[in-house]
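fyi for ur records
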Amino acid sequence: MAKKEIPTLKDVARVPEELQPVVAWWQDHGPRTLAWAVAALAVCVGLYVWHGTDQAQDAAAAVALAQASDVEGFEGVVAMGTEAAPLARLALANALYTAGDAEGALAAYDASLAELDDPAVRDIAAVGRVCALEALGRLDEALAEAGALEAAFGADPARPHYLTPALTLAKARLLCQKGDKAAGKAALAPLLDAPEGSPLAAYKAQAERTVKMIDAYAGPKSLFDQAAAAEAEAKPAPEAPAAPAK
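which gave:
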């Protein structure tokens, strides 16, 4: 099915100890994985409004995009058919991914790549596409695209591409799910070994949590399925209904 149940664990203490690293991975990876995309979109919306427009519909769409926060809201902006539609579709892709509709997110990312002109914003859609393919279990495709993006982004630790950390974490997860835990952990070296104060050093803690997730991962389930199973196991059993009073 296109839509997967997204884990929403509140009480990690209920999760078996061996699965807690996977749950921690989800809490990092899930709603926050594409947060960089939302931030970039906010900048784009600001620039759009700053330059202004003589068309009321375009101005209304820009405001609606800045205020939208869920699938329905972004779909509404896309349906308006204005110049804000390409950015709205990218935000829609992120919202669909977070909501668990990886197939819908993939289609929206593909549409965004066909519409967007700015290379920096297109890169958001490209990395998002890798994450959607991962969620769908299409690991070989995701890994191939991650490798191509890695080459395009370059490997200068002093001036890394702003999406390099997200791509590095995705590549490590993919290698893990392909069965090569050692390669997955090795892929995290640029984040784990980044000198203090460097652009990549801020992601060291997240990389360390990903290492723990890799150690805890037990295939062949995907990370998404394993995190969902952990949530199901953590849920308390429903209370039996009280016996009717006599």
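Residues 15 and 230 are 6 Å apart (CA to CA). thats all i got for now
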